[in-house]
Amino acid sequence: MTIVSLVTLTLVTACAGTTGPAAAPSPCGLRLAYFGPLTGDSSNLGRNMREGALLAVEEHNDRGSGCPAGLAAFDSQGDPKQAPELAQRIVADPSIIGVVGPAFSGESRAALPLLDQGGVSVITPAATDPGLSVPAPSTFHRVLGSDAAQGPAAGRYIRGTLHARKVFVIDDGSRYGRGLAELVMAELGPLVVQSASIRPDPAGPGGVVDEVRSAGPDVVFFGGYYSQAGRLLRALRQAGVRATFVAGDAVKDEGFVRAAGTRDAEGAVLTCPCRPPDRDPQFTRHYQARFGHPPGTYSAEAYDAATVFLRGIEAGRTRRVDMERFVDGYSGTGVTTAVRFDRDGELAGASVAVWTYRVRAGRIVADIDPIPQH
User: Fold this and answer.
1) Nearest Cα to Cα of residue 79 among 111, 52, 57, 49
2) In this structure, what DSSP letter does residue 345 have?
3) Nearest to 49, CA basis, from 350, 325, 250, 269
4) The model's pTM
5) Quick one: pLDDT band at residue 313, thresholds 50, 70, 90?
6) pLDDT of 2
7) For residue 246, what are the β-bridge partners?
8) What 8-state DSSP symbol labels residue 176?
9) What is the per-residue pLDDT across 216-228, written as a single tens digit (0 to 9) for each?
10) CB contact at 8 A, 35 and 101
């Protein structure tokens, strides 16, 4: 793989709130769209995904395939209320041949019907709500395992590896956070001594800290996003709660460590249906050279999602209906896994794995092997 010169890049404003550089419109007139947060509390995760997609586009262009592609960024701020308008803008733009995203489950719920109606193929690199594919919109695809894999895997890890006896489960009330928490509780059964939902609040988690302290768990599981997770963990530690803190994929970000503080974040366990990107040294090296920092959570998944579309362009699929057929039948080896979709747009079962990460000395590092599937 080679990195395209920055001379070929320009700033493209695809919609209100769009930020950051994107590959310029191509002579073929085709673009991919990144759909997800670039500002707001979850912007770090969005940056990772946009960069992964952008790297794939640049490398495609650098290979001189005969039909260069562009990338337009649609900043949702992770807010489902903004998703319908962004989806309508994408549908109305005939140059957009496919969407890398939507990034989060709530915004996916709001946007997918409109994108499906417009015949725009979607490959999400991060939205893990199992319900997104039940029933599956015809243009929906997911390039990672859903929470139907992550939730039970997290529960098995809490029970079998952490040997928990009492678990307190907290969620942030979002579709993603609550859904993941419910799947963890279903796996743990009577080990769950109490559960609670809390609203995102920069001022802190409120009375749930006292509830946790009174319950005396040895593990606290949180379903939600990294900023709130960090504030929650800091408050728990300040209150003297020493239970192991476990959270899902949307917490796997350096912003979690910053929000919690290095000392309080130490030892936290994070699950993610995402392969550690450093398992592909070439991808990591090229990403570092291009952006000045290593790939983050879902950078590699976004790269793989964009690559599917770009290979479709290389194969001459320049209409939305033809691209959709191409994606449905796609089979290839990506940075993260073998990419092949079933009839519901999910990854073929053998490609799904859930990994654990731990915070050590302020860094999020992967365990050696994924969580066993059973």
Assistant:
1) 111
2) S
3) 250
4) 0.89
5) very high
6) 33
7) 221, 269
8) H
9) 999 999 999 999 9
10) yes
The angle subtended at Cα 356 by Cα 362 and Cα 213, nearest 5°, is: 70
> Got the DSSP string for 262-300?
HHHHTT-EEEESS--GGGSHHHHHHHHHHHSS---TTHH
Q: At what angle do helices 83-92 and 105-117 cross, to 10 degrees?
A: 30
In whole numbers, what is the pLDDT of the chain averaged over residues? 91
CB 254 within 8 A of CB 294: no
- Other Cβ atoms closer than 10 A to 137: 18
Task: Report d(CA 147, CA 179) in Å as an integer.
Answer: 8
The pLDDT value recorded for residue 27 is 54
> In sequence order, what are the residues at sequence separation of 6 or more whose Cβ sits closer than 8 angstroms to the Cβ of residue 322?
312
User: Any long-range contacts for 337-344 (C-beta under 8 Å, 24+ apart)?
Assistant: 337/143, 337/144, 337/275, 337/304, 339/143, 339/304, 339/308, 341/141, 343/136, 344/133, 344/134, 344/136, 344/140
Question: Parallel, antiparallel, or unpaired: how do β-strands 70-75 and 338-340 relate?
Answer: unpaired
DSSP type of residue 332: E
Whole-number Å distance between alpha carbons of 6 and 17: 23
Residue type, 347: L
